[in-house]
Amino acid sequence: MHLLLRKTILFSFSVLLLSNFACAQETWEERSAKRFKPLSQQDERFITKAQPTEASAQPLKERRILVFYRSEGFIHTSIPWGNFALQKMAEKSRAFAVVLSDDYSVFNADNLKQYDAILFNNSAELKFPKESQRQAIMDFINGGKGVVGIHGATDNFYNWETGVSMMGGQFCGHPWTAGGTWAFKLDDPSHPVNGVFRERGFWHKDEIYQYCPNTYQGEENLRILVSLDMTKEKVSELLTSPKHEKHNKKFGPGPREVPVSWIRSHGNGRLFSTNFGHSEATYTKPVMMKHLLDGIQYALGDLEADDTPSAKIDKPNPALAPNL
After folding, report:
1. Which of 319, 322, 321 is nearest to 199 (CA)?
2. What is the predicted pLDDT for the residue at 280?
3. Rounded to whole angstroms, how far apart are CA atoms 304 and 302?
4. CA–CA separation, 86 vs 194, rounded Å?
5. Which of 13, 91, 149, 229 could in theory staple to 153 by disulfide, Cβ–Cβ 3.0 to 4.6 A?
6. Is the Cβ–Cβ distance between 189 and 291 less than 8 Å?
């Protein structure tokens, strides 16, 4: 009986290993085909309606953005929503044109010359096959162009410290899960990229990351625009939740700031990163889409905005979320 049980366990374990190996061998195309669902006509109508009809700043020239949406890690089902939203945003605002790609070959110096910004749409755990591709991205932003990151873009570059530094931080858990509605404060209420919020904090349903202390670039390097409103118990209580102890223990006891949207200069170029965008519904919210557009326009160099790091300015009083 014991011998039979051991054989059964060994067989089950072997099947599990083979199953995991098979999953690991699946291509990006196979994995994404399983995860992505076609947008319905109703989905498309809601997304289209949410896009801004005009830009906050007149483009200095015709702009082109490379939207890269491949993911080697967790595949967000909102990626097609984000791609469609960006296409409609470009069409309605006339602030830029969009080219979509999930092929690493686009990252070469000659090809990138035709673009004004690279946007990573939830593209997590990217593994560039060639060092020259990483260098092409750094030359791109340092040479005066823009990089934009949506949500999973900071769950990225685990073997590329320079890329992590550029983005401003790296994923370190998400106690604030997609099923919750969270409070957000404006750290810089009158900043142009925060213009759509009208100097008022807000509540929004989405998944929000925290950033590992050893990778987060902090207020010394980033202009923090939006962060979680820790004055609201629903938000702050998760800092001590046993459920999230694995990630929270990396930060130590006591209160802390959790940034959500920021900008920075990098070389002669600019970066805008926002953690909004895990949820499909985010792409149907006009306020969220205007915030994204303004961040993109900053990264393109069309929207003038002060990117002096937060630690180097006289900080304004934050605009807290209302009490519910």
Report:
1. 319
2. 98
3. 6
4. 19
5. 149
6. no
- Going from the C-alpha of 35 to that of each of 47, 109, 184, 240, the distances in angstroms are 19, 32, 30, 33
pLDDT at 14: 41
What whole-number distance in Å separates Cα of residue 210 and Cα of residue 182?
A: 14
Residue 168 and residue 273 in contact, taking contact as beta carbons nearer than 8 Å: yes
The residue behind tokens 């759509």 is 196
Question: Which parts of the chain sit beneath pLDDT 50?
Answer: 1, 3-23
User: For the whole model, what pTM was predicted?
Assistant: 0.92
Measured CA angle at 302 (ends 300, 308), to 5 deg? 80
**According to the model, what pLDDT value does residue 295 have?**
98
Task: Write out the H or E segment, with its range, that includes residue 12.
Answer: helix 2-25
Structural domain boundaries in the chain? 28-312
Nearest to 62 by CA among 268, 263, 300, 304: 300
Q: Under a CB-based contact definition with an 8 Å cutoff, are residues 234 and 182 in contact?
A: yes
Place of tokens 């823009």: 146
pLDDT tens profile 90-147: 999 999 999 999 999 999 999 999 999 999 999 999 999 999 999 999 999 999 999 9
CATH annotation of 28-312: 3.40.50.880
CA–CA gap between residue 280 and residue 44 (Å, rounded): 11
